[in-house]
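Can anyone check this?
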Amino acid sequence: MGLKQLGKAAPLPPSPDEAVLERVSNLHADTDYVARFTAPEFTCLCPVTGQPDFAHFVVDYAPGKWLLESKSFKLFLGSFRNTASFHEDTTLRIGKSIATLIEPRWLRIGGYWFPRGGIPIDVFWQHGTPPDGIWIPDQGVAPYRGRG
């Protein structure tokens, strides 16, 4: 497989540019199904104020030949911790990085961002068309309601 991080000590990469997303073979590439990654504690920095931003990400994908390796994904997400980026850019960068690496049949990412300046910003991106007949559950993240 040639994995560089799984089963080994791997420090948190200092930036997304230095992070290495990895993939593994899908042993069920002949079957249409959906895999989900949920990352409820994502952080990066506001590119204007330098203050922390927080998001809850849900990534759903119908794999083809490859699966996303989870430890490398965790380290990739953590590498954004000291990176300044707008919500839209961050969400699409994550989604496009995964899609480029694993070439899924279909992928969607929901970035549910906590309020910045009193306004929550949710960002959604989809790559491809879902295969016919697969079950795609709701992402399960309620719209932001504050104290109301």
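Reply from J.R.: I decoded it. Residues 16-128 form a domain with the GTP Cyclohydrolase I, domain 2 fold (CATH 3.30.1130.10).
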